[in-house]
Design a protein that fits this description.
alpha+beta; 2,3-Dihydroxybiphenyl 1,2-Dioxygenase, domain 1; six-stranded mixed β-sheet
Length: 127
């Protein structure tokens, strides 16, 4: 087996593990498939998993740490905003959001920070 044929999963640090689990449940609608003192394992489409784990480290929040591919970014943003998720706004020369949504030739995307400062993206890539 090589790395290129291995399954990949993301790991996200949580300085307050209980707060993070509440956030992923209440705001994002996830239920852990496994929940131990060393981490909560969540599963998304096609069996892709990510782990939120207790950590003394602090998330930088300066780059996307996990991204979800969705069919309709605007609908996803609206649904998440209804649950209290706050989206990041950017105003850079080649990276500008409007109402939390970035539109480029290649993708439509939006970004928010979880309760621990991890930067999460939702995106649709354009063919």
């Amino acid at each position: 087996m090589t790395l290129s044929s291995a399954r990949v999963s993301a790991t996200l640090p949580a300085s307050d593990f209980e707060r993070a689990k509440s956030y992923y449940s209440e705001k994002l609608g996830f239920t852990p498939v496994e929940d131990t003192p060393t981490g909560a394992l969540y599963e998304a489409a096609d069996g892709v998993q990510f782990l939120v784990f207790p950590s003394v480290g602090v998330a930088s929040g300066t780059h996307t740490q996990i991204a979800f591919d969705v069919d309709d970014v605007a609908s996803e943003v609206a649904a998440l905003k209804d649950r209290g998720v706050v989206f990041e706004e950017y105003d850079l020369p080649d990276f500008k959001t409007v109402d939390g949504i970035l539109k480029t030739q290649d993708m439509t995307a939006a970004f928010f920070k979880d309760s621990e400062g991890n930067l999460i993206g939702v995106a649709t890539r354009h063919a």
